[in-house]
Amino acid sequence: MEKQRNVLQVNGLNVAVKSAQGMLPLVQNLQFELKPGKILGLVGESGSGKTITSMALLQLLNQKTMNVEGSIQLHGRELNGLKEKEMRGIRGKDIGFIMQNPMNAFTPVYTIGNQFVETIRIHTKLSKKQAIDLAIASLEKMNLQEPSKIMKMYPFQLSGGMLQRVMIAISMCLRPSVVIADEPTTALDVTTQLQVLRELDRLRTECGTAILLISHDLGVISELADEVAVMQKGRIVEKADVYRLFDHPQHDYTKKLLQARPVLSVNEELSKLVI
Length: 275
Ligand SMILES: Nc1ncnc2c1ncn2[C@@H]1O[C@H](COP(=O)(O)OP(=O)(O)OP(=O)(O)O)[C@@H](O)[C@H]1O
Fold this sequence. Notes:
Helices cover 41% and strands 25% of the residues. The chain starts with 7 loop residues before the first strand and ends with a helix. It is α/β, with parallel strands linked by helices. The longest helix is centred in the C-terminal third of the chain and has 18 residues, at 190-207. Helix 5 crosses helix 7 (160-173), helix 7 packs parallel to helix 8 (190-207) and helix 8 crosses helix 12. The strands form 2 sheets. The chain has a 6-stranded mixed beta sheet, with helices on both faces. Strands 2-1-4-5 form a 4-stranded antiparallel beta sheet, with helices on one face. It has helices at residues 50-57, 84-90, 102-105, 112-123, 128-141, 147-151, 160-173, 190-207, 218-224, 242-247, 252-260, 266-274; strands at 8-19, 22-34, 39-43, 66-74, 77-78, 95-98, 178-182, 210-214, 227-232, 235-241. The protein has a domain at 97-175. One of its GO terms (molecular function) is ATP binding. It is found in: Cell membrane.
């Protein structure tokens, strides 16, 4: 019963990379699920396997050098082993993703409008005019002023924060059932961070999107996540409801992570300023 309600169900996920010493495990035996309208926070120190996990879910790892085993079910449909052509239909439409560095997500030689409209039209039967209208409406929802002007601009003409919001607008406009957000605020200045996080929160509430939020900022995780999974050396060592995890961490590694965090995170400080 509970399983049916999960948007994404991951079981026994293993990722290994080819090396001179043979296959080297990067991620081992992961099991987690994403529920509609809920945020699962994925935390862990640098190199613990968070990005590899998100890339494995999106089937974006290089198949020649990496081996992905296990089950990744989206609404009960197995993604692991799907052909690239089928995955292309799923990425962006059913699973949106927001990457660490927004500049890398755009092609420098095309305008924002071009890239936005093309993404919409690849996945829908909308006319060009309808796609432009949808793109503009989505940019407006991200609190971006003068969206028609932004559509005509090139990526380098926008600040990192604006580009990040454009990327979120693109990833959310087709109302995907899952969004994978890998350090969505890392590249942003403090003022834009909270705005972007609020938008993510608003959109999951409005669209019922299930979100995997990867962040090293425990302040961000404590504010947004419903559940938290802690990764260490490629394994999930603890997974719990956000309150339980922060108040009663069980695993020594989780305790260390919590002890190492600054007393006030950037976002908590910012919340105070905003109030
Ligand atoms: N293409 C690759 N080939 C070989 N090893 C890789 C590759 N990409 C990542 N790794 C290794 O996999 C491990 C997990 O990396 P990953 O990027 O997932 O960590 P992370 O938790 O996302 O770290 P960060 O918080 O710094 O982004 C690391 O040991 C990393 O060196």
